[in-house]
Write a structure and sequence with these properties.
With 233 residues, this protein is an alpha/beta fold. The protein is built from seven helices and eleven strands. 44% of the residues are buried. The protein binds S-adenosyl-L-homocysteine. S-adenosyl-L-homocysteine (SAH) binds next to β6, β7, β10, β11 and α7.
Length: 233
């Protein structure tokens, strides 16, 4: 049996996929005080384990960003032994690189952090991440999905230093989780893929927060549809 692990940050991003795949909530195999929640189900011959990163109870919002993503990935990898891990979510896109609201990107290797600057030998490269993801060009072609560079940082905004790094990397999808999931998957030696649907345009005329909220549900539907086809493929 193949085991596919999927990590989602926001409940709103996860819900369409939970419904599409008919996943059921499962008791967490990890300690209760850890936030991530688990949904499981079969999709043909494959078992799907979807980990939602959980709620930040102190602030009443979803856990987003690399700290919670690392935890969710470690729990998924150590408790459910997936054959492949997918970081699925929304991201900011770039008009300059052909992005549009609703575009779904499959990640191209490597996946880097765009906000970690440590100018010391060895630490510089470690901070950048540069974790591998699998080559899915054949699947992208078969499913008519685009491939793009995904890079990760812990902020929704994009200061100049981050933008410069993203220009250098040629980022198509700017998110807050993929590089952390890719790093943890590499530690476990498990193949990894990121799938990101664009909610907002970083180099567009609208404020990111407003654009993100406006398109979150549409992009999450697109994402759910794409991940369902990816899992089937
Ligand atoms: N206001 C939102 C916060 C969402 S943060 C709330 O209701 O909680 C954005 C989430 O979507 C992150 O998980 C991130 O991976 C993704 N994302 C979408 N657009 C992004 C962008 N422009 N930059 C960084 N992350 C983005």
């Amino acid at each position: 049996m193949q085991r596919i692990g999927i990590i989602k940050a926001m409940r709103a991003e996860a819900q369409p996929l939970i419904e599409r795949l008919g996943l059921e909530p499962a008791p967490s195999p990890w300690p209760d005080r850890l936030a991530p929640g688990l949904w499981t189900g079969m999709c043909g011959p494959a078992r799907i384990d979807l980990v939602w990163m959980g709620r930040d109870d102190r602030h009443g919002v979803d856990c987003i960003g690399t700290t919670a993503a690392t935890l969710a990935a470690a729990l998924l990898l150590s408790h459910r032994s997936p054959d492949i891990v997918i970081s699925a979510g929304t991201a900011g896109g770039f008009i300059a690189r052909g992005g549009a609201i609703g575009t779904v990107y499959l990640s191209r290797s490597p996946i880097c952090f765009h906000d970690r600057r440590v100018p010391l030998p060895g630490f510089r490269e470690s901070a950048m991440g540069e974790s591998p993801c699998i080559d899915v060009s054949e699947m992208a072609e078969a499913l008519g999905l685009e491939m793009g560079v995904v890079s990760t940082g812990d902020s929704l905004d994009a200061p100049r230093s981050d933008l410069d790094t993203m220009t250098r990397l040629g980022t198509h999808a700017k998110d807050m989780e993929a590089a952390a999931v890719a790093w943890m998957a590499a530690q476990f030696g498990v193949p990894m893929l990121a799938v990101k649907a664009i909610t907002d345009l970083v180099d567009g005329p609208h404020a990111t927060e407003a654009e993100f909220m406006e398109h979150l549900h549409t992009a999450s539907d697109r994402l759910g549809e794409a991940v369902e086809r990816i899992v089937a493929w």
